[in-house]
Amino acid sequence: MFLPNPLTVRVYRQLCWPLAGHNTKASLTAVLFMTRSLPASPFKVHYLFGGNPGKPCSPKMRLDDFWSLKLCRPSKEYLLRHCKYLIRKHRFEEKAQTDPLSALKYLQNDLFVTVDHSDPEETKEFQLLASALFKSGSDLSTLGE
To answer: Residue 67 forms beta bridges with which residues?
Structure first.
């Protein structure tokens, strides 16, 4: 949304916590941000300029930051692969509780192909799944957390 007058003032309330041993009451301070929003370009990028760091000692200090925001949707292929991964992961966890040998084969054959091995986080999560074969049923629920 682009306003006719793109110069807008926004007031944000920020909770400030005191240092331990000092005043125990938390105080609210108003932080003022001055922004100018530019309309989206043909490439669907939004630009934002301006700001205030919210320092009480220098209230007139301005930021000369120029920000760009581009929202990206995940591809259909990514969503399909990730959904398959989550479903197969859940199925593996169920199998691990009842039939560990079948679960191991499922992990090696069916679940392995849905993992994005270029993503270190997902790869690590996949590698930790094997430990579910050695956990009791009550410990398994904490594996995905």
So the answer is: 48
pTM of the model: 0.53
Is 69 within a domain?
Answer: yes
Q: How far apart are CA 92 and CA 72, in angstroms?
A: 31
- Half-sphere exposure in the Cβ direction for 56 (13 Å, CA): 6
Shared domain check, 91 and 53: no
Decide: 34 and 51 in contact? Cβ < 8 Å: yes
Q: Using DSSP, how many helices (H) and how many strands (E) does the chain show?
A: 4, 4
- My answer on whether 109 and 46 are in the same domain is no
Which residue has better confidence, 117 or 39?
117
Q: For residue 44, is it within any domain?
A: yes
List the beta strands (DSSP E) in the chain. Answer: 7-16, 27-38, 46-49, 66-69
What is the tally of structural domains in the chain? 2
37: three-class secondary structure by DSSP: strand
Burial class, 126, CB count within 10 angstroms (exposed 0-12 / middle 13-18 / buried 19+):
buried
Residue range(s) defining the domain that contains residue 70? 1-15+40-74
Banded model confidence at residue 110, pLDDT cuts 50, 70, 90: very high
